[in-house]
Amino acid sequence: MIDTFHSIPILSSLKNKEKIKILFVCLGNICRSPAAEEIMRQEVIANDAQQRWEIDSAGTGGYHVGDLPDRRMRVHAVRRGYDLTHICRQVRPSDFNRFDLIIGMDDANVRNLKALAPMVEDMEKVIPMSTFLDPGMGYDHIPDPYYEGAEGFERVLDLLQNGCHRLFTALS
Ligand code: 4NP
């Protein structure tokens, strides 16, 4: 396991677990978290570890429930081989029972998720995605690309590819 992850109890406890269930969360569930979901799924498939991992995504907001991911995100992702087909849904308190880890893309997501946790102990499941980023990437969150141009979407994909690879390695 990458050294710095040893100090996070929830990550140490998951390392030996037979099944790992993770939920990626952003605000809209149409840009960052559906991209993270598919990038993580491809990472798991590439390592032939599908039996161990369950992956989903959701949004703290409900503005786009039922929608496919944002067209711009789909266009940028498919160029890297990621076909985004997730249907947007809002995060719900029962997700804290279903998932081992709930990964927020930025500080607001993490704050909102902790506020939604049914029990104080559940807050431990909420981890910022930046935990897994190589510090050399120079980001302490995954920036919202919604009001950005093409470079914003490319940056999100760069960060998520880095973070998902390191998340997989940390728990394998
Ligand atoms: P996401 O991006 O949180 O990465 O899915 C956003 C999508 C939609 C909105 C904001 C952010 N919105 O305000 O509708």
Explain the overall architecture.
It is a single chain. With 172 residues, the chain is of the alpha/beta class. The protein has a 4-stranded parallel β-sheet with strand order 2-1-3-4. Helix 5 (107-116) links the parallel strand 3 and strand 4 (126-128). The protein starts with 8 loop residues before the first helix and ends with a helix. It is built from 6 helices and 4 strands; from the N terminus they run H-E-H-E-H-H-E-H-E-H. The structure holds 4-nitrophenyl phosphate. 4-nitrophenyl phosphate is lined by residues 26-32, 63, 144, 146.
Query: Could you tell me which ligands this complex binds, including any ions or cofactors?
Result: 4-nitrophenyl phosphate
Uncertain spans: none
Q: Which range best describes the helical content: under 10%, 10-25%, 25-40%, 40-55%, 55-70% or over 70%? A: 25-40%
Number of helices: 6
Radius of gyration: 15 Å
| Strand runs, count | 4
Structural class: alpha/beta
Short précis:
The protein has helices at 9-14, 32-46, 71-78, 95-98, 107-116, 150-171, and strands spanning 20-26, 53-59, 101-104, 126-128. By secondary structure, the protein is an alpha/beta fold. The longest helix has 22 residues, at 150-171.
